[in-house]
Amino acid sequence: MSRSLRLSPRQQHVLWATVRHYVATAEPVGSKALVQEYNLSVSPATIRNAMGALERSGLLYQPHTSAGRVPSDSGYRLYVDRLMQPSEELARQVDSRFSSDLNWPAWSLEALLKGAAQVLATLSGYLAVITVPQTSMALIRHLQLIRVESGQILLLVLLDSLATQSMVLPLPQPGNAEEAGLEALDRELQILSNFLTHHLRGRLLSEITTLDWSELDREFQRYADALREAMLELARHTEVLAPTQLIVSGLAEVLRQPEFSESQQLQAILHLLEEEQSQLWSLIGKSSPAVEASRLQVWIGSENPLEPMQGCALVSSTYVKDERPIGSVSLLGPTRMMYENVVAVVEAAADYLSTTLN
């Protein structure tokens, strides 16, 4: 409704000011407060009329008959879609903070994401949730066969998520080091590595069944069965990994928000984060075509399909590798949040991760 609702410039200005004032104070907003705080060049009565029209449109409501008004979920939605402007200055500050605090590539991918979540939670005061790229959906970037000891070789697979998968397999007979010589064996393994990388780069591990092993030269055919079995085992292993790995930070920060002073609301969110991560993953871990087009998605209050979050707002953006979404960055807080700042922070974090991982 709010996306197609027609408001006069004055009504838009009053809604904008009401949202800003309520976010800052957490107190219902009256017409006198708006006139004083925002230097509106009209009388309180005129503002009351505008607020009444916004209430009839479902964008504001009165929590008590004698109180001022507060934004509804629809009011916040219209504010996000049509009235706010993400803070470019804050986005620059986030990028600078990330650049100074996060030490990549010395850190592992998981350490990088944990550090990013901590910075996000500290800067925003909300709960930061970052999804770790799914290994089962990652594409093969490089394969390498390495001689590790007599009679064994290591198959190492580097994925485009920068995760690695590995397996030790026996060296097929008669190719032991004594008979073939170490240098000759290393050359064979490098040729095989090049063959596998050339044919499998850009594919899922599960797609290794499409590889035509008959293309291997005759002297390398003895490796085919062992390699095929090893790669099938790696593919099976990645398929059974839990696809719900989330990095969460900021519980102490979000506890300071008055909306979470009620233990029941907080316990529902904690249960979701600790016991029902698969539900949250279904919301932020998989991108629809619409989300991939914009990368940003904002769920406000009752828009959230997960019941524990229907008193919250969730702002999420994907981070990408080679123009393909591989994870998401989200902030979870009360619907009473400064959306222009949260959107700026989340998008800046997603952009930083995308740039860094590429």
Automatic annotation (TrEMBL):
- Could you tell me which SUPFAM superfamilies the record lists for this protein? GAF domain-like, Winged helix' DNA-binding domain
Q: Which UniProt keywords apply?
A: Repressor, Stress response, Transcription, Transcription regulation
Q: Which GO terms describe its molecular function?
A: DNA binding
Question: Do you know which Gene3D superfamilies this protein is assigned to?
Answer: 3.30.450.40, Heat-inducible transcription repressor hrca homolog, domain 3, Winged helix-like DNA-binding domain superfamily/Winged helix DNA-binding domain
Q: Which domain of life is it from?
A: Bacteria
Q: Which family does it belong to?
A: Belongs to the HrcA family.
Q: What does this protein do?
A: Negative regulator of class I heat shock genes (grpE-dnaK-dnaJ and groELS operons). Prevents heat-shock induction of these operons.
Q: What is this protein called?
A: Heat-inducible transcription repressor HrcA
Native species of this protein? Halomicronema hongdechloris C2206
Q: Taxonomic lineage of this organism?
A: Bacteria, Bacillati, Cyanobacteriota, Cyanophyceae, Nodosilineales
